[in-house]
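sanity check both lines:
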Amino acid sequence: MTDGHQSTRRALLRVAGVATAAGLAGCTGSPSDGGSGDTGGADTETPTDTETPPPEDAAGRVRLVSSDDNPDLAVEPAVIVVEEFVTADGPAVLRVDVENPTDETVVGEYRDVVFQYVSSSDFSYQLLPHSERSTTGVPERERPPYPTDEDAPCWRLTEPLAQTTEYGTVSIPADGTLTAFVGLYANPDAETCLPTGEHRFEATYGIEEPVGTSSGTATDDAWTTAEWGFSLSVESL
């Protein structure tokens, strides 16, 4: 990360999600199924754009309906569904990538930028971490023991997750990519374990470019913001 007194321009990316961000509770612990949770190796994963026969215990299927065009900013977000079926082994899982195609480092808010702890616009669902955030390759996937209904496969939270207010950042290197996995969980107030229909997730991305003096000290902040999001279709099986 470059210092504000250097001549190299630094972009600061901030993201404000639809829902208030919460702490990364349990993401470093063991999967709740005793170690048989989903694992890494996502380099070979592809979007679920073909009709795949569901497993016998599948309760639902999640598809990516649409995603917005790239925002007019120094980052290019993308999302794919890597686990489309809701089963007793886990909820649907998405992979979020945020690419920095520029030749300068971008500093980003470390949770909302990859849609961790972001709720759908109708508050039926919340996306929760299924991995750490990584800029050095695809992170290992795991399912933390979030509090959910005991009736499998019901991935509805039984209580709101603890809220935290800290602000953290992550640096996305030039020509680099920030990657994370998130699981799809119904919020505690959802009427069913699997609210069906189309659900949109959205965040507001902002770029702050310090305007420096001849010595490189920032004297003004020029902000550019843009919203980016995607829609998921959830069907019961």
User: Anything to note?
Assistant: The first strand starts at residue 11 and ends at 17.
